[in-house]
Amino acid sequence: MTDHERARRPLGRLRLGVNIDHVATIRNARGGAHPDPVHAARIAEAAGADGITAHLREDRRHITDADIEALTGMLRVPLNFEMAATPEMQAIALKHRPHAVCIVPEKREERTTEGGLDVAADDNRLAHFITPLREAGCRISIFLAADRRQIEAAHRIGAPVIELHTGAYCDAHNEGRFADRDVELEHLREMSAFAHSLGLEVHAGHGLTFETAAPVAAFPEVMELNIGHFLVGEAIFSGLDSAIRRMRELMERARREAFGEGAA
Q: Residues 127, 86: contact at Cβ < 8 Å?
């Protein structure tokens, strides 16, 4: 880290958003009511999650409308409602008015979200799409690749928040392609700083683990990490409460080590 980087300070306390989608995936694999993603949200709250993320897909493969209804009624921390930019999802968001709405790309054939939203190619429609959501009081974020053109487009349409897709960085790490990993990490670092320079709030997520979250947590511009699949997987071995507390401590330690004792 350069002297200039050491002199920079984090913009605030790093938040952890816990995605509970794959608790619902396990429930739906067999049918019935268990495990209950709403119960998982309660555990996450108690363990230190700063928010709960839930992606209501068009095919309802995991989170359901009833889950969103229940979460809206019981959460004490903010709900981050992930959704595709469709009229159906817009209507659901306007009905529930969650704290945050994160617009993500969505394809029926994908296993999980593949890459970021192509805002630059659809900026006029997206600008009109997010307007009523912003007017309803929802904080709008756009899930996108760490790409200057896409970040500029998100800023242009009036989205106050972006969430950088960390999948390429995490995949490179998991596959042992460490030179590629380091390139991807540096690119995420540069684009975090660029987005902040435009006045955007920066979040990050997708594929983050105990090993890969810490370097991203050390970016001073990043205000929130959203992590789900890994934490649900770890819950099988150590419990959800333990997995979340460990991730929370790891994030805070990474912040302290990057910026000194007492850093937010």
A: no
On the CB side of 236, how many CA atoms lie within 13 Å of its CA?
Answer: 7
As given in the structure block, the two tokens for residue 16 are: 């952890």
Predicted structure pTM score = 0.92
Predicted confidence (pLDDT) per residue in 105-152, tens digit: 986 555 555 668 999 999 999 999 999 999 999 999 999 999 999 999
Which is nearest to 114 in space by CA: 149, 165, 180?
165
**Domain topology for 15-259:** TIM Barrel (3.20.20)
Give the position of tokens 């067999």: 30
Tokens 């659901």 map to which residue? 92
The predicted-structure confidence for 186-205, as pLDDT tens digits, reads as follows 999 999 999 999 999 999 99
Q: 81 phi and psi, to 5 degrees?
A: -95, 105
Catalytic residue IDs: 55, 82, 206
